[in-house]
Amino acid sequence: MTEKPAAPAPHAPSSQRLEPLRHVDAGVLNIAYYEAGPADGPAVMLMHGFPYDIHSYVDVAPQLAAQGCRVIVPYLRGYGPTRFRDPATPRSGEQAAVGADMMALMDALDIKRAVFAGYDWGGRAACVGAALWPERCIGLVCVNSYLIQDIANAMAPAPAAREVALWYQYYFNIERGRAGLAANRREIGKILWTQWSPNWRFDDACFARTALAFDNPDYVDVVIHSYRHRYGLAESDPQYAEIQRRLAALPPITVPAITLDGAGDGVAPATDGSRSASKFTGRRVHRVVPRVGHNLPQEAPEAFTAAVMELIKA
Amino acid sequence: MSGPVDRGRRLLLGAALSGVAGSAFAKASSAAAPLRRMEPLKHVDAGVLDIAYYEAGPADGPVAILLHGFPYDIHSYVDVAPQLADQGCRVIVPCLRGFGGTRFRDPATPRSGEQAAIGADVIALMDALNIRRAVLGGHNWGGRAACVAAALWPERCRGMVTVNSYLIQDLARAAVPIQPKHETALWYEYYFQLERGRAGLAAHRREIAKLLWKQWSPAWHFDDATFDRSAAAHDNPDYVDVVIHSYRHRFGAAAGDPRYAELQQRLAPLPPISVPSITLDGDKDGVLPASDGRASASKFTGQRMHRVVHGAGHNVPQEAPKAFADAVLDLMHT
User: What ipTM score was computed for the predicted complex, to two decimals?
Assistant: First the structure.
């Protein structure tokens, strides 16, 4: 499609919060989420990553709402005011769980279909939802393309330079890393923001706004479990075993998809999309956004919003 | 002793904790000049190992044993060794277990990389060569070996030179996090805890080592030939096992070789070093930031001087050989 280049909307100040939040019981969680836009508009699920929060969408959400979308921006398990309903539920951070949470939220809100959009953990949740429940998915917008984890091959090493960028994942696999995350969650979060988005000049208030979400009582457990599970070093929550079994086959994504890479992404280097092409069996467009880092919706909200709108208009 | 030529420089100890030594001179690399290798190597059965080592200098000179680190090899001392030999020292530069031409004598010996083992290897080498006392100099693993030997066998050690001060590991506190900005530099240690890290080291040992050289010595402009000369030592058949064990043992994730259990028990309380010591920090060290030496002061109960070497990174003996050699010679004069 052709678009007239519009002047980019001014970015929200770092003091602006996505408020008020709503709460809904959804599956094992009581999910806190931000909602904007007309209730009868096409729904868009905007899924954040680690170590971020819903404010990755502080500019995307109003842009989509202004164009008629019903925007739902949930706090993932372990973040912000989202809570586990039962203290006995394992604090899993596995991919099947974050994908199932999104579907549970749609069920709870009686949303039949939506665009699934995300990056990092949220992109993974979106991929899981799109792959396993395509009938619920209008289309997928995902940063870093296909994000379902190939746990069976997680012990295959990458080139050394790539492994360095994953230092936190290895750190979180030892108890020192758990203690470090618990004691220094803000410092670690800020280091990762800086490493992953080397061209992004976020201010302290911008980081602090998001870092509040890391004070969730389940944050450390969920994060640590996530980074151990993906290496096969933590047990799955049995209630997700069937979903994980289906994900192990690395199922294709059949819904229309737009994948975005930031050319300045410091943790998942930009690609031309060709290596993941076989995982997208429907229409798929891949774009590289110049200079932008890993937190693409917050760094380049217009590009992210445009991708969502293209799927809605298609 | 008649020993090395007395250059009139006495070791000044006590008052000044922190001194300044020399500078690292970035040498212009010359593609035409062939790189010097430390050859020929000698071999000796020493404890569980057949140790390959380089020797230089007069057989009756005061002995300096120079201990390399990871992921380096004996060529960290390629310029230090001749400087010391010229000054009358008998210089011994062994390949550590898992590196270069050193081999385990028994295929059944556990390929341990624990601190007690590399310290015991030094003493075994001294025994095998009938060396009663020596100055022990080292950096990284080699500095740790020197600290272990100096702490547990002070009667064998006439002095110690280490980079990064006191290096005996406090295994009981290995799970206590440090500042995140310093944790990031230890990525390889966490990586090696996973089987992915073992596979990665086996498959990409050169790439990983080169990356660490660059991270740890950001101001050192070594050329490919210089790196390759050392990286050849990483083809040792025990390299991966010893390295992985070393980094797991220090986090309590791998059991020690039982033969070193008693030594490790003695290392656990972090014994002091009583022999005269000179500690060096490179002010461009990218993995262990330079200190003023105070935090480790209580671990040195004898004479100790701390020096910051300007311009040097983690591989101080190779980056600033004169500063390292001078420290060894200063101890020879005491």
Answer: 0.92
